[in-house]
Amino acid sequence: MDATTLAAYDKAVPRYTSYPTAAQFDARVGPAEHAAWFAALGGKSATVYVHVPFCAQLCWYCACHTVAMNRGEVLDAYAGAVMLELDRLAELAPGLIVGAVQWGGGTPSQLGPQRLVDVARHLAARFDRRSGSEMSMEIDPRHCDDELVGAMTQIGVTRASLGVQDFDPGVQQAINRLQSAETTAAVLERLRHAGIRRINIDLVYGLPRQTLATLSRTLDAALALAPDRFAVFGYAHVPWMKPRQRLIEAAELPGLALRGEMAALVSEKVSAAGYRRIGLDHFARPDDSLAKADASGRLKRTFQGYVADESPCVVGLGASAISSLPDGFTQNVAAADRYIAMLEAGSLATARGIALSDADRLRAEIISKLMCLQAVDLAEVCQRHHVEPASFLADIDALPKLIEDGLVSREADVLHVTPRGRPLVRSVCAAFDGHFKPGVERHSRAI
Q1: Counting CB atoms within 10 angstroms of each CB, which of 3, 201, 338, 378 has the fewest?
Q2: CB distance 281 to 347 below 8 Å
Q3: Around Cβ 73, how many Cβ atoms within 10 Å?
């Protein structure tokens, strides 16, 4: 992509893991609204996401809701609070069917093997699991021993996502995450030997001290591990949100043009190794469920990234976890101590959220199709939402410019994100975002 286009679209835009995005959540939605919306689920199916906001130590690049925590009494209290949250929700919607279960963080294993087993058993006792549904867990390979892998197999984990980010020692030093390729390979072999054979690897480009050469070597090493999926994210430098990122030297971050070259290198190298490119930042083997969902048009995007699970809702458990419900989004309080206190006091821990309007539902479907399929039939979507396509398009001021710049093509009312526009699909989606105010909200850069 040429420098002029890169510069024109190097703006801060949402990642569109939801619409409306979390930037629009506010305190008008609290425990009462959450309870009413959840009770309306009835016998529907939902993915369950369990957030563990703890790590053994903090990596400086990370923008997740997490803190360093090794105190057993706090971990006990947190696991107990998650089980209390399960109790509250089961009382509200006892007929809920659980599809996929995703453990994320932070580092879920920081709870320790026995607490993981306790929470998983409580979930199984409170809700019915759909037969054959997946259970995935994010893993820090630096803290994954035989005892943890044993607990993972005991609770039914079928997929592990290994955080790698980068294998170069200089880059690792700059982000405070020292992790050798040998350590990662040993954990991967341990998981496969235990029967957990579906493996994801997470990488990041745009990190401090990273170059095309170091990134290429990292990609080679990661490809040699032969995972089923890759997620390769552009580093989001948001020190105003995450003070730990102030420990990263901004002068050591790759510039805009280099970030663009890095994104292209990732796509070329991983695709050439036989992986199917999925949406913006995922890659999967052709026989993987994510690739199959993409090929059949069933791909979805949630706060956990691109997913193949067909459950219409997401139930978030834990501090800062977000639930996606038919009536809107809710988010739990972010501080673990406050989360524990609210559950122990008999309340849900909901801090904020947003109710969905008819306009939100229309724009959410359009943005989802652009993010997942790189195409949308506006006539078909607008008709389903009882909106005239011509009048809707008349309000999309940025669309002519996106077409002129070659990021989008249009055939009648069908829009396609072009190969040129794919790395900037978030910017394309921003044109359809009725809440987004450029320069007011602070998001990560589009490149």
Answers
A1: 3
A2: no
A3: 7
* Alpha-carbon torsion (125, 127, 130, 133), positive or negative: negative
- As given in the structure block, the two tokens for residue 189 are 């072999």
pLDDT in tens, 242-282: 899 999 999 999 998 999 999 999 999 999 999 999 999 99
Beta-sheet strands, E only, within 97-210: 97-105, 128-129, 135-139, 159-165, 198-205
Shared-domain flag, residues 325 and 368: no
Please measure the distance between the N-terminal and C-terminal CA atoms of the chain and give it in whole angstroms: 11
The dihedrals phi and psi of 7, each to the nearest 5 degrees, come to -65, -40
Cβ neighbors of 172 (< 8 A, separation 6 or more) are: 165, 166, 178, 179
CA dist 289 and 293 (Å) reads 6
The structural domain count of the chain equals 2
Query: Which residue do the tokens 């993010």 mark?
Result: 371
pLDDT tens per residue across span 106-165: 999 999 999 999 999 999 999 999 888 999 999 999 999 999 999 999 999 999 999 999
Is there a contact between 333 and 352 (Cβ–Cβ < 8 Å)?
no
Whether residues 351 and 373 share a domain: the answer is no
Domain end point (choices 322, 355, 388): 355
CATH code of the domain covering residue 378: 1.10.10.920
How far apart are alpha carbons 236 and 256 in whole angstroms? 13
Which range of residues forms the domain containing residue 392?
Answer: 1-18+357-447
Same domain, 177 and 211: yes
Q: Which amino acid is at 206?
A: G
Q: Show which of 355, 381, 397 is a domain's final residue.
A: 355
318 shares its domain with 395: no
CA dihedral 72→73→77→78, nearest 10 degrees, is -30
Integer Rg of the chain from CA: 21
Residue 404: strand pairing partners = none
The one-letter amino acid code at 298 reads: R
On whether both 4 and 83 belong to a single domain, the answer is no
Please name the amino acid found at residue 199.
I
Same domain, 276 and 238: yes
Q: How far apart are CA 237 and CA 241, in angstroms?
A: 9
Quick one: which of 242, 227, 230 has its CA closest to 197?
A: 227
Please tell me the distance from the alpha carbon of residue 173 to that of residue 152, in angstroms, as a whole number. Answer: 30
The verdict on 144 and 43 lying in the same domain is yes
CB contact at 8 A, 184 and 202: no
Please give the C-alpha separations between residue 400 and each of 375, 394, 417, in angstroms, as whole numbers. 16, 10, 13
Which of 268, 58, 237 lies closest to 163 in space, CA to CA?
58
